[in-house]
Amino acid sequence: MKKIMMYVFSAVFFALFVVFLIPFTRGISNIGNITGAVITGLLTLICLFPDKFNGFIRNLWERPFGKGVVAVSGGLFTVCLITAVVISFFMLKEINDKPTGNATMVVLGCQVKKSGASLMLKRRLDTAFEYLTEHEDMKVIVSGGQGADEPMSEAKCMFDYLTAKGIPSERIYIEDKSVNTAENIEFSKAIIEQNGLSPDIAIVTDGFHQLRADIFAREQGIRAYNIPAPTSWYLVPTYWVREWFGIAYYTIF
User: Fold this and answer.
1) Residue 1: is its pLDDT beyond 90?
2) Domain extent listing, the chain
3) CATH fold group of domain 104-231
């Protein structure tokens, strides 16, 4: 039975390993899928060859300083695991923090290609469009500057996309100077104050990104709600793990 369970675990970890590899084939390489592929690859091997792994640990334990290496490695793994679980809990909590009253929508930008909005940006905009259609009094700020490899600012692309789908231009405010999430929130706050819009905001971005955006909003003294856009299933693990690092780094430094 124990051997069967190890094979089951190895199959699960190998499946996750493959999922972390898929983004590489789409030109996506970041700390999320690199870390995920390394860890799930190692766990797959450990589950397939548990005796060899246990033997390696025993040999290491008997060597000078080996006990320290095993203890430090085990402690570090435990701390990282607990941190990942805690961050994931709050990420899920923010995903489900939906607007309950009047708020100003803020759509966070994403890559713009020569052909137009990227798939991730389109999904954010489609999510925004559906919500704006259902809430006709809501105003929206499209937030995102222009990267060196982008043909136009993300905000301009979002404005064109939403107006083409029928959202009146007078409901849309353009913030096209920001280059990161913190500036998305900061510069959008300025637009809200200049135009007398609702001070509470409803952030439209991918679910994995909601917690970090909410943290920046709180720093600006803004009550933020969240409207999560769907993410391609094969990208969720990669960007979810990347957020662990991003949130941990921001919290520490």
Assistant:
1) no
2) 2-95, 104-231
3) Rossmann fold (3.40.50)
